[in-house]
């Protein structure tokens, strides 16, 4: 009986060590991605200021800021402010497991802020979207990009099965759709998704 107790203690220590390492690794990945995104935003702002200065001297420079932002899979290129939670989180291109380990994933076949259609962001409930159960209608998100910031207000939330693809669709207007796993306290692979629909604030 004594040996069984020792074995259970050892197994418990191993599980705690693995969990602790994974938690630390996720925190580091998010921290590194946030630094990468903030650096890219700062560079974009600096370039915008240079473009404005150049356009004041020449009349042929009106389209400098009209080029679409180019991002590679796994690249952190923007941040998401969630005032309700007091968080600023990195947005990474792609929603594959590697990208979601770095921060909030941007669904590649959805548009970017300012392009007047559906923008889809996803993240894990136990990493970047920890405490997301506090989010409700009326709360705001701000997406900070190299070209500027875009603020959205949540007007609607819903819970759908994980295989419900109707969430991703053309909406005919700009909408920021943010999704995460649900229930929030579920142990293992959660069966549903919590979805928020936020729209631009004038």
Defining traits:
alpha+beta, globular, 202 residues, 2 helices, single chain, 8-stranded mixed barrel
Describe this structure in words.
The chain is of the alpha+beta class. The chain is built from two helices and eight strands, in the order H-E-E-H-E-E-E-E-E-E. The protein has helices at 2-55, 97-100, and strands at residues 76-82, 87-93, 104-106, 118-123, 140-145, 148-161, 175-182, 192-200. Strands 1-2-3-4-7-8-6-5 form an eight-stranded mixed β-barrel. The longest helix has 54 residues, at 2-55. The chain is globular and about 80 Å long. 26% of the residues are buried. Mean pLDDT is 86; it is low at 58-67.
Contiguous low-pLDDT stretches (5 residues minimum) are 58-67
What topology, given as strand order, has the largest sheet? 1-2-3-4-7-8-6-5
Percent of residues in helices: 25-40%
Quaternary arrangement of the chains shown? single chain
Mean pLDDT, all residues: 86
Structural class: alpha+beta
Q: What is the N-to-C succession of helices and strands?
A: HEEHEEEEEE
- Please report the distance between the alpha carbons of the first and last residues: 68 Å
InterPro entries: Sortase, Sortase_D, Sortase_D_1, Sortase_dom-sf
GO molecular function, one term: hydrolase activity
Enzyme class: hydrolase
Protein name: Sortase A
Q: What secondary-structure arrangement, pairings included, does this model have?
A:
Elements: H1 2-55, E1 76-82, E2 87-93, H2 97-100, E3 104-106, E4 118-123, E5 140-145, E6 148-161, E7 175-182, E8 192-200
